[in-house]
Every structure is written in C-alpha cells, then in structure tokens.
Design brief:
With 90 residues, this protein is mainly β. It has one domain. The protein contains 1 helix and 6 strands; from the N terminus they run ββββββα. It is globular, with a radius of gyration of 13 Å.
Length: 90
C-alpha cells in the first residue's frame, strides 16, 4: 500500500499519559488498500517501525506502507523545527 501527502500525527490513546509516551501514526491519502477508495485520507494505527531511508512504515495492525510525496505542511514543520525524518525512527 502507498500513502501520498503523508505526515506523522500524534496518537494519544490514553489522555493521562505523558506526551513523551504518546505514539505516532501516519495520516495520508491511501492507494492500493482494498478497504478504501484510492485517494481516501486515512489515519493509520500506531507506527511500530519506520525506515526513513526506504520511506516505509509498518503499523501496529501489520500494514506496511510505502510513503510517497510528503505533505507540504509537514515538510514545512520539519524544516521550521529543524527535525529530520530520522527523528521519527522507532
């Protein structure tokens, strides 16, 4: 499956957990998933593995996503805050 216009989003789960314990999910336009129409914006389950070189992610549900074009707003967020995709590796 592929995600286009993707970004990392916070998956709070338990609102009583400290922010550093919050997990990350992906949001983007999915392609190649039989459960969704191509181009539908989804939020994945929690990201368990992320490879910033290969631009792949495996989620808690076992789905593997190839990441296409990054959401421009997320790219701006990374640049403004001096983050890299390596900062999101699990």
């Amino acid at each position: 499956m592929k995600l286009e216009n993707w970004s990392f989003v916070v998956s709070i789960g338990d609102p009583y957990k400290a922010p550093e314990q919050w997990r990350k999910a992906l949001s983007g336009e999915v392609h190649g998933n039989p459960n969704f129409e191509n181009g539908k914006r989804i939020v994945t389950s929690n990201v368990m593995e992320f490879d910033p070189e290969q631009l792949t992610a495996r989620t808690e549900s076992g789905s593997v996503y190839v990441l296409g074009q990054m959401d421009p707003g997320f790219a701006d967020y990374l640049a403004t805050n001096k983050y890299t995709l390596e900062d999101y590796r699990k």
